[in-house]
Every structure is written in C-alpha cells, then in structure tokens.
From TrEMBL:
It comes from Paractinoplanes toevensis. Residues 1-28 form the signal peptide. Keywords: Signal. The keyword NADP does not apply. This is Cellulase (Glycosyl hydrolase family 5). Coiled coil: none annotated. It comes from the Bacteria. SUPFAM superfamilies: (Trans)glycosidases, Galactose-binding domain-like.
Length: 502
C-alpha cells in the first residue's frame, strides 16, 4: 500500500508457458498466440484504451480515465508476489477485476527482488507473464518502479536498472504509465535529488510512456509539483471520504493545469465496517467525478492472508491486511459492488446507505454518536417496512449533545446546495428530544452548525415522518445526518431514511 521505502497453485496456461521459453515479452506474446485458438483470443484481447496508447498523448489520456485496481495476490503481497509467483492465481484474480469493470492494473517492481543493478532473467520473465495475463483480460498495466528502495545515492545503478526493466516495453501499448516510486518523500533531499535525475532516465528508456511519482499528502503533492515536471500527478487519498471533494479540489489546485489521478484510496475493514468501506469508496468516486478527476484506483483487490506480507513495517500494521474489496476466501465485500457500479456507470446498490437498516451490523455505514449516552440497537421488534429498524432508549443528554445514529451521504457537499432528509419515527412512553438533524463541517472537520426537524411528540405514538431541510453553508465540505434521541426515559424507533439534494 502506501508505506514505501524501508520497508492456488494450478497449471500454467499455454500463453505463460510460451513466455518462459522466450527471451522477451514481445517475442513471447507472439509465440503464445499460436498455441491454441482459445489462448490466442485471450492473449490478443486488449482494451480500447490499450489500442489507443501508442503515443505519449494517447497513453496520458488513457491514464487519466483508467479504471485501475491496485493489486497483489491475497496470499502473496509485496515482494512475495514475485518470489512466490503463481500465474494461475493471478490470472483468476485479474479475471475478477475485469468482471468488475477494471481496464487497468497497477503492479509494483522491487529492485531487491528483481536483481540490481542488472535485473535477473527469472524476474523479468515473471513481469512479462504478468503483463501478458493482464492483457488477456483487457487490462493495461501501470508499473511502479523502485518500491521498498532507499539507495538514492546510486544514480548510475538506478538508471541502468530502470532502463533494463523498461526498454522491452518502450513501444508496448500494454503499459499505460510508469510511477517512478510509490509515495516518494519530497522532504527527503536525497530522494528528491535522485528523482530529478531518474525521471529523465526513465523518459529516455520509454519516451512514449507517461511518468509520474505518487505522493500521500497535499503538502507532498505541492512539493513534488514544484520540483518535478511530470506528465501527470498521482495523489493517494486516505482518511475521511466525507470531505473527499474538498480534498480533491485542493489536490487539483496544487498541480494547476497538469493532469491528476487518484492512484490509491480506500479504508480498512479492521477499523470501519464493511458497509462504511463501500460508502467510503463511493464517496471518493462521486467526489472525483464532481472535481473532474477521471481515474480512481482502489487499494486493493484482496485482503491479505496471515503471513502474506513480507517482514517489513507494513506487515506489522494489522489494518493493512483488510483493505481488500474481496475477503481472503474470495467472497466480495459490499465495496466490490460499489466499485463495480462506479466503473460500469450503473446505479449504486440500494443497500449502500442502508436507509431501511436491513443490512447486518457489519455491512452498514451507520455509526453511533455519543454512545456513552445511549447506544442505537438494530431490532426486529418494530419495523415500518422490511424486517428491521433502529431503536434508542433510556438515553442521556449533556451540554455537548445527545446520542444518535449517524451517516454521511454519498453525494459530495457543495456550499449553497439544498439538502432534504427525512425519517419515520415512533415512540413508546418517549420523553426528551427525538429528531432528525443535519450537521455541517468544513474542510478541517470544524463544525459549522446544522438544522433539526420538529420533535417527535412525547408518549406513545404511531409512525411519524420527521423532515429537515437546509442549504449547505459557506465553507461546508461534509454533512452528517443524525437520528437522535436524548433525555429519553422511554424508547423510539427509526426506519426508512431518505437523504436527497434539491
């Protein structure tokens, strides 16, 4: 993922066997296409983007619209992808990515594994296999060079290694772009000086392939833009998706008129629910579209199995194992459907925001607010529609607020835009304050204010619609919708939420 330097076995398809017997990717691909009719069809299949990427301008345009997935096999992350290379598993995984709507895949290359400064034939052949497998599923490849690398003093060796890796692909339309290094730190003077020398070397080796350097913060993006004239800029977006539009707009401002992509984004289901992961990615896709950024690459296709990440700083972070769109057993998380909807231009699943609370607790994006004063509970005891509702009972209240169940919408917030939210509520011996409310925050997550509906009548009531309307205030970057009930010695139930812009 985004931590950088310092840190199924099965039969091999005929196309791959041909690669093992030849000296280079182009020759291997040609021989492989004669093996069988089925293999020929697969090996020569390319995306429309790949067909257009025969020039720098064509590849650059394709990179800006690529439906790209970051990828390692579930059981073999980082360097293990290459040291335990499993062509059959990779082939099946890339088929899954293709089925989601992906048109491109990112692969990271490691000098420490491939051999340095002269790459080993064993590993360049594996890279050729990977590129051929990707093309067989209509996927172009973005190559990230120099991962887990920190020898910035060796310009000569670095240039020779990059040239040896890239020269076989200099005219290969299957390679869409080159990322010199994952999340290079421009605050490291040696790293920046190295990058200034290596970018021209990479361009010399592959002049028709656009070059970028990925970064993981707005500050680093600004520094990289000032220091390095790149073909496009690659920003990794993590943190809070609710403010994604504001963040992406800041990233665009940092690079000016230069092209920008979101080369990594996602969140770990060790720290949020699977439902929130799906909502996170949907928000980023929606925000990128609103900001005019055409390529968003989720991190990553699969969760990682225990032991899949080599000994490194990454391996010691439990959350790093749970960013996948798919679990280690191959089953899809809700995020897979959200990404497929974004890539295929279809509607997001109706369950994405769990407006009727029918999702399981693991698959809902709703979260408790001030649970110390009262915890929302999913229940089948009462429901307006479906089988489930959410209840708050015996709640407290303080000067800081009252307990609630909250969610942020998928649609990005634009100041001045009108919003409407509604929910059906009913009470049993209810007291205190029960409402639906809008709560606004700026780009720094500072609360800007909000608005609340009328209060549900006290006592025992039937289903009552509560509504709230408000225009996003100046400076608003995100919105939370709260179903709240405070100082309530009885109980209330909520069901059938709607959140729309007007």
């Amino acid at each position: 993922m985004h931590l950088s330097p310092g840190l199924r076995k099965g039969s091999v398809p005929a196309v791959l066997a041909a690669l093992l017997l030849t000296g280079g990717p182009a020759e291997a691909a040609a021989k492989a296409t004669t093996s069988t009719k089925a293999t020929s069809t697969k090996a020569t299949t390319t995306t429309k983007a790949a067909a257009a990427t025969t020039t720098l301008a064509g590849r650059l345009a394709a990179a800006q619209s690529a439906k790209q997935i970051n990828y390692y096999p579930s059981a073999a992350g980082w360097t293990k992808m290459w040291t335990a290379f499993d062509a059959a598993t990779i082939d099946a995984d890339l088929a899954k990515a293709q089925n989601m709507g992906a048109t491109s895949v990112r692969a990271m290359v490691f000098p420490s594994v491939f051999g340095y400064p002269a790459p080993k034939a064993e590993y360049t052949a594996k890279l050729a296999q990977f590129v051929a497998l990707a093309a067989g599923h209509g996927l172009t490849v973005k190559l990230t060079l120099f991962d887990w690398w920190g020898d910035y003093s060796d310009i000569t060796g670095s240039s020779a290694w990059a040239s040896a890796i890239l020269t076989p692909y200099r005219n290969d339309p299957r390679i869409i772009s080159i990322d010199l290094q994952n999340e290079l730190d421009p605050g490291n003077a040696a790293a920046l000086a190295w990058a200034k020398r290596l970018v021209p070397a990479v361009r010399a080796a592959a002049p028709a392939i656009p070059v970028t350097v990925s970064v993981n913060s707005l500050a680093n993006l600004t520094k990289i833009k000032a220091a390095l004239p790149l073909d496009y800029y690659d920003f990794h977006l993590y943190g809070y998706s609710e403010r994604a539009l504001s963040t992406i707009k800041q990233a665009k401002a940092a690079v000016g008129s230069s092209p920008l992509v979101i080369g990594e984004t996602g969140t770990s289901t060790l720290t949020v629910t699977e439902g929130e992961q799906a909502a996170f990615l949907a928000r980023v896709f929606q925000a990128a579209a609103a900001a005019g950024v055409g390529s968003v690459a989720p991190w990553t296709l699969y969760d990682f199995a225990a032991g899949a990440i080599p000994d490194s700083a990454v391996a010691k972070i439990p959350a790093e194992y749970h960013y996948g769109l798919y679990r280690t057993d191959g089953t899809a998380k809700p995020a897979a459907a959200a990404v497929k909807a974004a890539w295929t231009g279809t509607a997001y699943p109706a369950s994405l925001l769990d407006a009727g609370f029918e999702n399981t607790a693991v698959q809902t994006p709703w979260r408790s607010f001030m649970p110390e004063l009262g915890v929302p509970v999913r229940t089948q005891a009462v429901a307006r529609s479906g089988r489930w509702s959410v209840s708050l009972s015996n709640t407290g209240r303080t000067a800081a607020g009252i307990p609630a169940y909250r969610v942020s919408p998928i649609t990005p917030v634009i100041p001045g835009q009108k919003w409407h939210a509604e929910v059906w509520a009913r009470g049993n011996a209810a007291t205190g304050t029960t409402q639906i409310a809008l709560s606004w925050f700026d780009a720094n997550d500072k609360w800007l204010g909000g608005n609340s509906s009328a209060t549900l009548a006290a006592g025992t009531t039937g289903w009552t619609k509560l509504t709230v309307d408000q225009a996003a205030p100046a400076g608003a970057a995100s919105l939370q919708v709260h179903l709240k009930s405070g100082a309530n010695t009885g109980a209330v139930w909520f069901d059938d939420v709607a959140i729309v812009t007007q």
